[in-house]
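Hello forum,

I keep getting stuck at the same step: I have a sequence, I want structure tokens, and every attempt I make locally crashes halfway through. Rather than fight my setup again tonight, could one of you with a working pipeline run this one for me? It's a single chain of 95 residues.
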Amino acid sequence: MLVINTYYTGKDGSARAFAKEMTESGLVDRIRQEEGNLGYEYFFPVDDKETILLIDKWKNQEALDFHHKTDMMKQIAVLREKHKLKMKVERYQGE
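Reply #2:
Ran it on my machine without issues. Output:
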């Protein structure tokens, strides 16, 4: 299993607006339905109102690679740019 922690940071609430738009647009539900997706959840740090944390889990590298080639990734990139977010990514591999 792969666990990817992605920290999105912006200004003036833009990271939370991004997560809201991701959810309301249906992108989050579509990603959760992808083959090999084991979880896709947003969290808000208590001490940083300008950052959100996305924790997504994938069955294996092949499932993640497939996800990265979908049109959804292009839509996510457009939204990330729209909200002017910076990203920091951490990757963990488990069994």
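The two ends are 5 Å apart (CA to CA). If your local run keeps crashing, start a new thread with the error log.
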